[in-house]
Amino acid sequence: MASNLFAEKLRLFVSRGGEKLQAAIVNFQLSIVNLVCLDVGSSTGGFVDCLLQNGAQKVYAVDTAYGELAWKLRNDSKVVVMERTNILHLDHLPGVKARTSDGGRTDSSEVDGVDLVTIDAGWTKLELVLPVVKKFLKSNGQIIALLKPHYESDKKLLVKGVLPPDLAEKVKNEVVERLQVLGYRLQGEMESPILGGAGNKEYLLEITV
Questions:
Q1: Is 49 in contact with 25 (CB distance < 8 Å)?
Q2: What's the chain's average pLDDT?
């Protein structure tokens, strides 16, 4: 049944990133209906498109670039476009209370954090992104992160831009171990159904804090 649900969504998104996230939604049995989401590294908007098609109420689309988000998403009233924004420097989401250093919440905004964070941050390592997005996440919120071992590893290990599959698995395990040491809980993991750039193996992680 899950494979059929995934197949129904294939190639219906503005980029193939949507196919990766759809696979995670099906595999981890997530319901996105009416969720407020933060998407980190939106680029063209594959993840954003996937979230909307699965019923998200609102999606904050954060990316360092300008003008890359697909036109249909840019003009969707459910999308808050946050271009030229480095997630590592983000300290405010419009309408969302941020978690303060003492564990409380700022008191001047509308909602107590987002329900779901999705991450495809390219070169930025997950262990740097997670502490930032944690500030905006509800206490029972979830994170779906695309882990790219070829970006997390020593670049000397790449062969023509590709990290050998056995090393990709090793790097993935090392990253997951570091995240758990930092206090993040891994609820599930899976291989991405689509290879990354140049044919690199990627993984999707379901994380809670």
A1: no
A2: 89
Listed residue (74, 77, 37) closest to 54, CA to CA: 37
Q: 159-171: string of b/e by CB count within 10 Å (b at 16+)?
A: eeebbeeebbeeb
Give me the mean pLDDT over the 177-206 stretch: 94
SS3 call for 6? helix
Residue type for 17, please?
Answer: G
Q: What is the dihedral of CA 56, 88, 144, 201, to 10 degrees?
A: 130
In the predicted model, what is the mean pLDDT of residues 39-58?
A: 97
SS3 state of residue 37: strand
Instruction: In whole angstroms, give the CA distance from residue 44 to residue 164.
Output: 27
Record the tokens describing residue 93, joined without a space. Answer: 């989401």
- Using alpha carbons only, give the angle 44, 46, 51 rounded to the nearest 5 degrees: 130
- Round to the nearest angstrom and report the end-to-end CA distance of the chain: 30
- Inter-residue contact 28 to 54 (CB < 8 Å): no
pTM above 0.70, yes or no: yes
Work out the average pLDDT over 144-150.
Answer: 94
